[in-house]
User: What shape does this take?
Amino acid sequence: MSLKRRNRIWWCKWQIRGRTIAESTGTENRAKAQEYHDRRRAALYDEARLGKKPAHSWDEAALDWYTTHGSKKKSAEDDRLRLKRLTTKLSGKAIDAIDATTIESAIPKKKIDGKPISPATRNRYMAVASAVMHRAANLKWISSAPKFNYASENNGRFDFLSIGEAKTLLNHLPTHLAALAKFSVATGLRRHNATHLQWSQIDMQRQCAWIWGDEAKSGKPLAVPLNADALAVLRAQDGKHFRWVFPYRGKPVRHTTTHAWKNAVKKIEREGFKWHGLRHTWASWHVMAGTPLEVLQRLGGWHSIDMVLRYAHLAPGYVAAYADRIVMDSPPVGTILGTAETGDPGEPLQSIDSLGWTTGLEPATTGITIRDSTS
Assistant: This one.
């Protein structure tokens, strides 16, 4: 048997018709390496002596998936980079010799900046690899796609800024990123929706913008009311480009987490704060200002109310007003236990759907504007 260990990873080596073939199994597990060895040996034997066509490689499968499906996703650029890093370990491997362990071993343990990857990032790698393998299974290149063990990643925590931190951050960002960041905090738009916003999606008179369904994460069109901060940013951006609202050298901003961003984040002593934290900041300020969670869901374009409930703890007053409605001793008038005199139930809460303006375009949000020297 031709199995040798190199830097804790098992490698295979065969001599077939005078040709030496060496491949990494991609795993530190001895049993898994043996399985890979046996499958590849059989495949190479069939190829060399029985004239069978060589198996499709990981490279072919990854390219096919990205061309047909991946490039059309909203996360296309992120998926491309993940596939690129996976391919450094999986390049040349036969797709039918790759299992879940092989792929999990190929996932980088550190980010490009040297920091360990989070469970969420690891899950994203497994998700894109799973998509590639399912595509290969549909093409009959493999019998079935492997199953992955995804890590638990949601601890319920998120980062958001105070108004003071937000002002400091904006003051230390270059002009093009400061405008984009302030608009993001004012509207809660996701990064791609903000960077690729076009003037054709803006109505200054009605104080609104919109995101088309094929550009929104939920897949549904999103109405975006514009508050005073957002309108001020748009007026300052007017004339910089005929198409893009936030251009940089004539094109949409491609990278937001730049050295300039990291340096600005250091100024507020919040190293590791990500651009998506601006959306968390917008949502957090809304909840703390008293915006009902149902309204916030519509403003932010979340598909499920569960995504909005993570912010509920920031406004205990949102539910505190209803706490006294079920007291046992001397219930106040109008509680759900009935009035003191008549026993009639109190007035029911007004349904969010009964608020006329929520069925159409929401009004401009107020009360959460940032005031600084650039306003």
Q: What stands out?
A: The first helix runs from residue 30 to 49.
